[in-house]
Write a structure and sequence with these properties.
Strand order of the largest sheet: 1-2-5
Structural class: alpha+beta
Number of helices: 11
Radius of gyration: 25 Å
Strand content: 15-25%
Amino acid sequence: MSTLQISAADVNKLRQQTGAGMMDCKKALTETNGDFEAAIDFLRKKGAKVAASRQDRESNEGVVIARSSADGKFGVIIELNCETDFVAKNAEFIAFGNQIANAAVEAKPASIEALYDLTIDVESTTAKIGDVIIDKTGKIGEKIGVSKYAVVEGEKVVAYIHGNFRLGVLVGLSAAVAGADEAGKDVAMQIAAMNPVAIDKDGVDATTIERELEIAKEQIRAEGKPEEMIEKIAAGKLNKFYKDSTLLNQEFVKDSSKTVAQFLGTVEKGLTVTAFKRVALGA
């Protein structure tokens, strides 16, 4: 170890450049004989070691950020995780999540891996998101990372964040009509509250349909209904499932006299939902 005296000004300069703690910065400069570039590498390696040591840790806290593009044609949701609620509520952590979401809206990466390769501004320089995550892991001392990344494209995409960054929704509408922003937010709130499985019954996968029918049949048999009535009653239960669990057929939460489809029809005839994504923290 070097006996070189490290000044407080140098420590503070490195801290400003990297965001690492004062003691970590002093150790990094001491270990590298005051070489700033080597000290930055030292801190990054420390971050990588912390990240590696944290791989088996649970990181179920964090933030969910939903964002749509300026032209309203594209939207993203990212879930940025950490280990504790304390870090999740930190303004710097939330700002980092917003920075990642903004970069994703601009570049439209195809995967989390591609997202990690995007560059963002960090202090007075730029760095890949994946590298910044390693650096912040070293600084924070918790496992952090993006666990979910979802996108929606459409004629009008509305983004909504619910519950203090705990849940994000994207809604794609069929047209960018007057009132689409407000209508999209209302539908997004519906999705947040009711968690539909698909837009309509045509979007429900065959496995889900088969499971719902089997559950219905077992319930009907348990009620002692005749075997010849089971198929007909099960079909009725499946229709109720569609009504309760598919977005356009659900009762609109803000006006139970209408379905979501009927509500959209009052905004503009023929207006409908073309796609949606719902991401809940830790789910």
